[in-house]
Structures are given as C-alpha cells and as structure tokens.
C-alpha cells in the first residue's frame, strides 16, 4: 500500500478530480493524503465511483488548505517518511499567495527523494510504473555532515 499525496491548485482541481475518477480502482487500495478543498473534492469523486454495496472505505487523511498550513503539514509528513509519492497539479500560470509554501513543499519532496507528478501525464506514468505495485524505498542522501557543520 502506497501513501499518496494529492494536491491541486484551484485551476487544476478539475483535472485532478478527473484523474482520480479515471484511476479510482487503483487509488482506493492506497492511503490518500490531501490538502483542504482538494481532499473534499477527491472524497466526493471517490464516493460517487465506489459501489455503495461495497463495505470498504477508502483511506484518506485530509489536511488543512494549502495556504492555511496544509502544504506545511504535508511537508512535515514527507520529512517523517509518511508519504511515498505526490501528485501535485500546480498552476504555472497563476500567482499563488502561498508561493513560498509551495516552493518549500517541492523542495522538501526533492530533498527526501519523493516521486512527484506535476501534470497528468507524469501522474499516469507514476501510477502505471511497475514500481508502483512493488515495495520501493527511495534512497535519501545522508545529511549527517550538514547537521554537524557547526559542531565544535
């Protein structure tokens, strides 16, 4: 089971919901982690796609909205190695009021070697990769020397 973060800026939420609906049979087998409104929309989409007679509930953690701290909550989960991959459909054409939080989230994802999809094509590649259905532990660089840089 993978722990998959799903995030989308306002102009990309429809895209992410369509992607989730297309891949719902795969996604319901995994732990989903969503920020704010995106989580509500993803939850609605999955509930519509699930057979109501099916007793299984999908696993979802909903964080705060990105600008209200959700990006930072997600970044902390990545640092704690509680996220395996992230689908983050961001809007490159629209300025974001929380742009520094977005950059911090992307930076921490790269730092901890988390696979990131920033568009639907890459999300399709990630979810269809043979690595998606196997155990995969990303190699994270040893930062101990960085941590000791001021030690006497």
Describe what you observe in this structure:
25% of the residues are buried. Helix content is 42%, strand content 14%. The protein has one domain (3-147): 3-Layer(aba) Sandwich (Rossmann fold). Helix 1 runs parallel beside helix 3 and helix 4 runs parallel beside helix 5 (99-111). A five-stranded parallel β-sheet has the order 3-2-1-4-5. The termini are far apart. It is of the alpha/beta class and 152 residues long. It has helices at residues 13-22, 24-27, 36-49, 70-79, 99-111, 120-128, 144-147; strands spanning 3-8, 31-34, 59-62, 85-89, 116-117. Helix 5 (99-111) links the parallel strand 4 and strand 5.
Structure annotation, total helices: 7
Q: Can you identify the CATH superfamily?
A: Methylglyoxal synthase-like domain
Could you tell me the radius of gyration in angstroms? Answer: 16 Å
Q: How many runs of DSSP E, i.e. beta strands?
A: 5
How big a fraction of the residues is strand?
5-15%
Main structural class: alpha/beta
Count of the separate structural domains: 1
| Poorly predicted ranges | none
From the 3D structure, determine the CATH topology. Answer: Rossmann fold
What is the gist of this entry?
With 152 residues, this protein is α/β, with parallel strands linked by helices. It is 42% helix and 14% strand.
Task: Walk me through the topology.
Elements: E1 3-8, H1 13-22, H2 24-27, E2 31-34, H3 36-49, E3 59-62, H4 70-79, E4 85-89, H5 99-111, E5 116-117, H6 120-128, H7 144-147
Parallel strand pairs: 1-2, 1-4, 2-3, 4-5
Helix pairs in contact: 1-3, 4-5
């Amino acid at each position: 089971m993978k722990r998959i973060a799903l995030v989308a800026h306002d102009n990309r939420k429809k895209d992410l919901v369509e992607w989730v609906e297309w891949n719902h049979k795969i996604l319901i087998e995994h732990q989903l982690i969503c920020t704010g409104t995106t989580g509500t929309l993803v939850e609605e989409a999955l509930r519509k796609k699930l057979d109501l007679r099916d007793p299984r509930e999908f696993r979802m953690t909903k964080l705060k909205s990105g600008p209200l701290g959700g990006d930072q909550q997600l970044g902390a989960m990545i640092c704690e190695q509680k996220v395996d991959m992230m689908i983050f459909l961001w809007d490159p054409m629209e300025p974001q009021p929380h742009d520094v939080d977005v950059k911090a989230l992307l930076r921490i994802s790269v730092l901890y070697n988390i696979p990131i999809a920033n568009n639907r094509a890459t999300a399709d590649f990630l979810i269809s990769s043979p690595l998606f259905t196997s155990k995969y532990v990303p190699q994270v660089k040893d930062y101990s020397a960085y941590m000791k840089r001021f030690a006497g």
